[in-house]
Amino acid sequence: MVAQKMSESLGQPVVVENRAGADTMLGVRFVKSSPADGYTLLATSESVVALPFVKQDPGYELKDFAGIGVIARSPWLMLVGPGQPDRSVADFVARAKARPADMSFASGGVGTTPYLAEQMLLQRAGVQLLHVPYKGIAAAIPDVISGRVTMVFDATGSSSSKVRSGQLRALAVTSTVRNPALPDVPTVAEQGMPGFSSYATIGLFAPVATPREVVVRISGALQAAIASREIRERYLAEGSETVAGTPEEFDEYLRRQSVEFGKLTSDLALQKQ
User: Fold this and answer.
1) Distance of alpha carbon 92 from its chain centroid, rounded?
2) Per-residue pLDDT tens digits for 145-196
3) Beta strand ranges found along the chain (DSSP E)
4) Contact 114, 76 (CB under 8 A)
5) How far apart are CA 217 and CA 214, in angstroms?
6) Hey, is 191 helix, strand or coil?
7) Which residues of the chain fall short of a pLDDT of 70?
8) How many C-alpha atoms does 83 have within 13 Å on its Cβ side?
9) Threshold 0.90, pTM exceeds
């Protein structure tokens, strides 16, 4: 939807091409090596910031890209299967402290943003659980529903429908305030972890050498797209948010995230793979 709206502003098609593989690094490297002319862009989560801290040879650095802006932001839902006994973060933490060997958490891989968000919560709670990595969170969801894995963080926009249908139970949302799409789900912060917040942020990037006037023009098209009524209504319905801002503001946000992820991976003593 965003690509379609951007094409209206730019006066030419905006084609979305999925390049999966290597924990998103195939797509990242492809854009890094593409001509810096504004015709090849990268749309990805802020795992692009985290992966250099956990990969031996990611093939890129954050400084290889110029930030254009945020496509969408969604808080994480802390999810368990309907067969789990937990009804709150406190229930989950108490059980994890009493029987850690019986519990686990899933992610799309070490260094991905949901993995780091999960580890932030577990670190705050003072518990360590078995990590079960998958090739993407979508692959983990069936095992969480069945109870094979205890918990997963997934973006509100991806799993809110499964929560409403009863396939998953949301113990908490990681936003600073309750999410309008699931108003009955309390935040992590209001359940004994004040100040805790974390979001799945999807951003748009260009190779760093892209002319500034091109970055600014594309940013304008992105801002016009996310300000449209259709996209705002779609985001609101699924629990996502729009974040207006300049390329400079997005770059500053990415620098702050880099510092935060660097500290977390150091605190967790994560070895580069």
Assistant:
1) 22
2) 999 999 999 998 889 899 999 999 999 999 999 998 899 999 999 999 999 9
3) 42-45, 65-80, 104-107, 130-133, 151-155, 169-173, 199-207
4) yes
5) 5
6) helix
7) none
8) 9
9) no
